[in-house]
Amino acid sequence: MRTFFSVIARSSPGGIMGTKGWGRKGLTWGWPGLRIVGGVIAVGRVGGLVLAVALSIPGAAQVVINEVAWGGTEASPYGEWIELYNASDEPVDVSGWALVWEGVTIPLGEESGGTFVLRSHVIEPHGFFLLERGRDDTVVGRQADIIYRGALSDRGETLRLLNPWGEVVSTANLGCEGGWWAGEAGASMERVSPAAPDDRFSWRTGIPGGFLDAAGAVIRGSPGEPNACWLSSPRILMSLPPGPLTGVISWAWQAQDPDTPAEDLVVSLNVSYDQGVTLQPVVEGLPASGSFDWDTSGWPPGEVLLVARAEDPDGFWGVAVLAAELGG
Ligand SMILES: [Ca+2]
Ligand SMILES: [Ca+2]
Question: Confidence band (pLDDT; 50, 70, 90) for 171?
């Protein structure tokens, strides 16, 4: 059974837009007055505030770069691997597609360029596709769909998934200056949700999972499996009045978690004047849901990101983000 709920919110003034994902643990998302409708925008009204949640993953060919083990494995820094995920309800034939980054092209449907072993060119609905660099025992116990040549620099790369028309279907690490949004030597970079945008809030460092590397060490990551951060990270929605924010405003939020009781979640409300690079806390130590009367008069006016952040006791976290104008 699949259920839909918000994982990360990317917002427009006067509302929030969340994204849809799948869950294996039966979590359902609830917000009074909000109708969750797969594939469309659901709009509800909460205490007079307009709440909009974009739940759409465009139906066809929704394949994402879901995990990037740019730092290799414990066995070898060359033991890189990459995971794609088909978020749609249909199989996707990736013949003619390619995964590219600086100096590297990996065709997904033919043995050419960086691809020297091709075992599959169809990704099943809600299925995973694993690319291993160099050899199939980079990840032991999970057969690679593709074995490829090409290195990911520790100094950062932008990965792009291209369809047969050369259109960019998905990216990973776009906009990250001089490094990676997450991951480290021996640990992957996991997307927090297949539907999450590619930005600084959307990636987490992998944790030990169920697979071994070529030297028998546990891989920190989830090759060919749902991402650990997806299965464990809090989801949060928030709501603010529309228009420029002046005076005292009501900032409301609601967080849920796939595997942690709501009472164990801790929420903070934050402002960023630098596109999320740094967060300035407005208030911390909040419960999983509620509202806060925020006096904006003490904050410099300007374009900001408002970030509601929920964290569980294991350190998994999720955010809702709203681009807004502080009126001063
Ligand atoms: Ca994974
Ligand atoms: Ca959790």
Answer: very high
